[in-house]
Specification:
Chain lengths: ~425, ~550
């Protein structure tokens, strides 16, 4: 195991944490012990990960844990800076999310490594059922807030449906990849019954997501499916044609709902609805502008001017305080994670495992693009959190579980004889 | 120990520390990414090489998003609406948008009509309040910009000069040197003293007053009543039934009544119609069976049960002095519909007249209405000739009519900015006709309905009007021009007071107040050179 896997994430995290400490010290000469808590928590996570990988004789890609830990460090620094992570309080569910997520990541890794994940291929009905059960439970037990359903405390356990759906659909895709590949002159013509089966099993959980009001996740999972389809079959037309169809469907369907229309209006001309729906995205742009190229310095800006900046607009905090340069750096970290994840998929020996890794990576990457694009007004807002940066316990746990799955797929060979 | 660290970190050192830490972060991230790349390099990518297309796609999409982001993050100041949003809604104290201090709006004597409160709050102060509310306009976070504040926004905000990033950097340097960047000042041709006096004379009644300099077209006065205090704008003004936000001087459309007879008089001279006409007591009929147009006197005699002998054969001076309907209805019909249509066009009656074109947005009046007549519409023509029927004009249109009579038939384009060059908008009358009508209007002051407007030291010509209107009581009109004795007329005034009855009773005192103020001001200004020097003094300061 390479030491840089934990050393470099620490090098990314520490300047950010020290920046916030410097700003707080410059304002007041008092510093409580809780101010060290984020650093302590992150160091604990790094140590635990190091120990876990070392003890389990991890033989997979070091890039996956390295990139994921670096992003987790930036996320902790951002949440600490914006004030959602003040003290270590093990009672509150949002504080529990970090240890819970890290342990879930270890558990998934340990349980499914050495090719054990391939055994999951047969259990796809379990994952389908679990995904539907989770989303259904949120709809039944949750209450409506800003047009979607959440559990008490703003929790959205439906996030965990993301890895479940990927695990489920990967079985169908890798099982039928030869048939799905069938085609002529690059145009896929799979047998109709396969497509119908896929659609029939894919539709119920996705429709449940629509019922929950989470249209962003609906779009995200569909895009993930398209990437997985084209990756397993090697037919790029699944991707291009599928995205064209999705774009068309969105163009036609989104203006039908009042919420979708409001979001489209707030995107196309935020200034005309500046005091209503345009307020949050415009304030986000103002925060970005006040950051400029180099930013105000981490901890020295006022990103609080953007309402609920810590959740969907966490990217704006980086944009204001570290500038466009910081945004490029952050995007580079995400690109490293996507690159590492796809490399895991490309090296996996088993087609199912490869398909799962593709799906997980695609899901994380598309989620990043949708959120970052929404924050900078490149695309309409989708209400999707930024992986590992946005505030939200369920999202953090789900993302760490996905990282754990990637670790398990990567760690398929028994270690070479030490030498 | 913490205190020592805190002292050491006091600004501006904390900024340096933050830059160092940012540099560390910006080194650590590429180090991490490069370390991973070097780690990958020696190994085979894997047997599904096509999969690596997806990270490349991700990078391309992220790069596109970052480019889109830089359009706001780096070049946000090139979007005017974005800067306006920041100016109003960015709580950060030191963004560039807040350092753009709006320029001042000045009157012709260099008096400040609007300026930004120097306390740093960005609040706009309007020292003349109600008196200049409509012409200056106001700035309000929810209502936006109105009047000149809106039309000259590019200049006032200094935004016209800040187009490129280099301009912006220059402004930032200036900001660093002087603490703020000031927009351009805008000088108007209006006179704050006339505005104050006219507002006081209108005394909250619904109406408007406009004064022009006939020689140059400068707008000396643009006043609408009731007005509002732009310093404490309130939303409820939007629903006030007396419409205080409505600029009657430019947007109010009124039947102009007898004041329009001055235009018909000019047309009669130009058409060569004989100026001596028979005015029988029982009125003028276009057709034998048509309803006659009668004079006011006939009605007032009839009300008292008497019979009126009629004016008999009268000339232009007496007809205008007595405001004879019968005379001008005849005169208009004799000129014919073609000549009348051409007059309406020359008077720019059916067009909106711009008084501010300096920059992207215009300030102009709404178009008036003088319907275009067909050959046979003599009855309609006789109505229009006495300013009734379907004729509707704004106070600005009437002021232009009077100014063209006062300036030998030349209608100078009205302008609010001294920087716009004087141009001739139109020539409604020949010089001979204009001089003839001007003489007749002087006779109205000497012997007719406008005797009360005479001001010592001024040579005044005037015409009253009482316009019937289908929605209520008559509107009171008064138009006049005046010049110092022995000089060309220097002011042309149009006053309307809604539903106030006779023009000589309601509108004349307002016009007289304006003339008195103008006379006193021009006498005072003659003793010390006013325009230009006041500006120069301000600049020196």
């Amino acid at each position: 195991m390479f030491p840089f896997v934990v050393a470099l994430p620490l090098a990314v995290f520490l300047p950010l944490h020290l920046s916030v400490l410097a700003v707080r010290l410059a304002n007041a000469p008092s510093l409580g012990w809780p101010e060290i808590a984020p650093a302590a928590a992150f160091c604990a996570v790094l140590l635990a990960t190091w120990a876990e990988l070392k003890l389990s004789k991890y033989s997979g890609s070091p890039a996956v844990p390295c990139a994921a830990l670096a992003l987790l460090g930036v996320g902790i620094a951002v949440q600490y800076r914006i004030g959602t992570l003040k003290t270590v309080e093990l009672r509150s569910p949002s504080q529990l999310a970090l240890p819970l997520g890290v342990f879930a990541m270890f558990a998934v890794h340990l349980a499914l490594r050495r090719g054990r994940i391939n055994a999951l291929e047969r259990f796809w009905p379990v994952f389908l059922g679990a995904a539907m059960a989770v989303v259904g439970a949120v709809i039944v037990a949750g209450r409506a807030f800003r047009g979607a359903y959440y559990l008490a405390g703003g929790m959205n356990p439906a996030e965990i449906a993301k890895p479940l759906l990927v695990l489920f659909v990967a079985s169908l895709l890798s099982g039928h990849r030869k048939l799905l590949r069938r085609g002529f002159l690059g145009v896929p013509f799979p047998p109709l019954n396969i497509l119908v089966t896929l659609a029939l099993f894919w539709a119920p959980p996705l429709l449940l997501l629509v019922a929950q009001g989470d249209l962003g996740m609906f779009a995200l999972m569909n895009a993930t499916l398209l990437v997985m389809l084209s990756a397993t079959t090697g037919r790029s037309l699944y991707l291009t044609g599928g995205f064209a169809a999705m774009f068309l469907a969105a163009r036609l369907a989104i203006p039908l709902t009042s919420r979708g229309r409001a979001r489209l209006d707030a995107w196309s001309d935020p200034f005309s609805v500046a005091m209503k729906n345009g307020w949050q995205p415009l304030q986000a742009l103002v925060a970005l502008y006040s950051g400029g190229l180099w930013g105000t310095g981490f901890g020295a800006g006022s990103p609080r001017a953007v309402p609920i900046v810590e959740s969907d607009f966490a990217y704006v905090i980086v944009g204001e305080e570290l500038g466009l340069v910081g945004c490029v750096a952050l995007c580079a970290l995400y690109a490293a994670l996507v690159f590492a994840g796809m490399r895991v998929a490309s090296r996996a020996k088993n087609a199912y495992a490869s398909c799962v890794a593709t799906g997980l990576t695609a899901c994380l990457g598309i989620q990043t693009l949708l959120n970052v694009g929404g924050c900078s007004k490149a695309i309409p807002l989708t209400g999707i959190p930024l992986p590992l940066l946005s505030h939200g316990g369920s999202s953090l746990v789900a993302t760490l579980v996905m990282v754990g799955l990637l670790l398990a797929i990567s760690d398929e060979d028994p270690p070479l004889v030490a030498g | 120990m913490l205190e020592a660290v805190s002292d050491w970190l006091a600004p501006p050192r904390v900024q340096e520390v933050l830059s160092v830490l940012r540099a560390l972060f910006l080194v650590a991230v590429p180090a991490l990414v490069l370390r991973l790349v070097f780690h990958f390099a020696p190994y085979r990518i894997g047997h599904r090489t096509k999969l690596m297309l997806f990270p490349a796609l991700f990078c391309a999409a992220a790069a596109a998003i970052l480019v889109a982001q830089s359009r706001w993050q780096i070049f946000g100041h090139t979007d005017k609406r974005f800067v306006r949003f920041m100016e109003l809604h960015d709580p950060r104290p030191d963004t560039v948008a807040h350092k753009l201090v709006r320029g001042e709006i000045l009157d012709r004597g260099g008096r400040r009509l609007a300026y930004t409160d120097p306390d740093g709050s960005g609040r706009r102060v309007y020292p003349f309040g109600e008196a200049t509310a409509h012409v200056v306009g106001f700035r309000h976070p929810a209502e936006g910009l109105t009047g000149i504040e809106g039309a000259a926004d590019d200049l006032l905000s200094g935004y016209r000069a800040l187009r490129t990033a280099e301009d912006f950097r220059e402004a930032a340097r200036e900001t660093a040197a002087r603490g703020r960047h000031v927009g351009t000042n805008v000088t108007l041709t209006v006179d704050a003293r006339l505005q104050m006096r006219a507002t006081a004379a209108l005394a909250g009644r619904r109406g408007a007053a406009v004064a022009l300099d006939p020689r140059t077209g400068e707008v000396l006065l643009l006043c609408s009543s009731p007005a509002f205090d732009p310093n404490i704008f309130e939303r409820r003004l939007n629903s006030d039934p007396s419409l205080p936000l409505f600029n009657r001087a430019l947007r109010g459309l009124y039947p102009s009544g007898s004041t329009f007879k001055t235009a018909v008089a000019g047309l009669m001279v130009d058409c060569g119609v004989p100026l001596e006409l028979d005015c029988p007591a029982d009125g003028f009929r276009v057709y034998p069976k048509a309803r006659p147009i009668r004079d006011h006197e006939w009605y007032s005699y009839e009300k008292r049960g008497l019979s009126w002998p009629g004016f008999g054969r009268i000339g232009l001076d007496k007809a205008l002095a007595k405001s004879s309907n019968v005379y001008f209805a005849q005169g208009g019909v004799r000129c014919g519909t073609d000549a009348f249509n051409a007059l309406a066009e020359r008077l720019r009656a059916n067009e909106g007249v711009a008084i501010w074109t300096n920059g992207g947005r215009r300030v102009s009046s709404v178009p008036g209405t003088i319907p275009r007549l067909g050959r046979g519409e003599k009855r309609e023509l006789s109505q229009l000739s006495i300013g009734q029927g379907r004729l509707q004009l704004t106070p600005l249109h009437l002021a232009l009519l009077v100014s063209s009579i006062a300036a030998n038939g030349e209608m100078m384009a009205p302008r609010l900015s001294p920087e716009m060059p004087p141009t001739v908008l139109s020539r409604p009358f020949s010089p001979r006709a204009a001089r003839r009508v001007a003489a007749a209007m002087r006779a109205v002051v000497a012997t007719g309905t406008a005797r009360a407007v005479a001001v010592p030291g001024l040579d005044v010509g005037a015409k009253t009007g009482t316009a019937q209107n289908p929605h209520g009581d008559d509107h009171a009109w008064f138009v006049c021009f005046a010049g110092r004795e022995g000089e060309a007329p220097g002011i042309a005034v149009a006053v309307v007071v809604e539903n106030a009855g006779f023009g000589s009773a309601a509108a004349l005192p307002v016009a007289k107040a304006i003339l008195q103020e103008w006379e006193a001001d021009s006498r005072a200004d003659a003793q010390r050179p006013a325009i230009g020097t006041a500006d120069a003094q301000r600049k020196e300061r």
